[in-house]
Amino acid sequence: MRIRNIPLFIVVNFFITGFAFCQVSGRVIDESNGQPIPYVNVWVKNTRIGATTGENGKYSIEGAKIGDTILISSLGYANIQFSAENENNVAMKAKINKLDEVVVIPMKNLAEFSVISFKKVKKNRNWYNNGHYSLARFFNYKHEYDKTPFLSQISLIALNAKMDNVVFRIRLVEVSPNGEPSDNGLTDNIIIESQKGINEIIVNILKEKVLFPKNGFFIVVDRLNLEENYSFNKTAKMDILQPSIGMERTEQEKNTWFGFGGKWIPPLEMKKFLGTNGNIAVNIKLTN
């Protein structure tokens, strides 16, 4: 048998490379009580590489490497950023938002105004599908809303190809000074279970008593990168993240943003990433 000499630098390089790309994982908890925080997005900053924490607060990022800049964000908490190690357990601190002067307006709930984006759920044929990312649709305030200033209901279309329910998240957030979605929520996180097939997802937010901000707001849909949210597609021969989010069928002003890795891509640039910049189909109802 002939024994070949393997150069030392190749062996060293193998071990360094193997170490650098070993699994980046960890757990996210609430600093105040030590409880796990589920459904938190954990990103390699400014990339589409990321994961979502499960109900136990644990996560594992496929494709991340030691030394990557990790960004962890969740509504109601201060963002955390650090250099990745093999195991990364972090505690998130609750963020206290500075509140503007509050004007108390009594809610009567006697009148209603609808902002329509779609009418027939089953007619939808265009979808935002596979991939771990967020979609945020901007709604501008109009004077015709003056008599119905409260947000009472939002609805959108979801397609779930799995037999089991899958979860995703909806957030209502303020507009940041640069015009993109901010980290300041108008409500708490809204966790949604999507059943198999095409469904209209209806969320009643009447009890939140949210006034439509005069500078507008965003409805953000977060696709959660959880193992149980994947379904194998026989045609594509790959696992597809569920659910898909419905798009508008009619051409309207483009006002949907694309988010990943701690950054937001504006509507006119989305096409370079997703091949389309159609608006997500979202109806909202207002009341007085």
UniProtKB/TrEMBL annotation:
Keywords: Receptor. InterPro entries: CarboxyPept-like_regulatory. Pfam families: CarbopepD_reg_2. This is TonB-dependent receptor SusC. It comes from Arenibacter algicola. The lineage of its organism: Bacteria, Pseudomonadati, Bacteroidota, Flavobacteriia, Flavobacteriales.
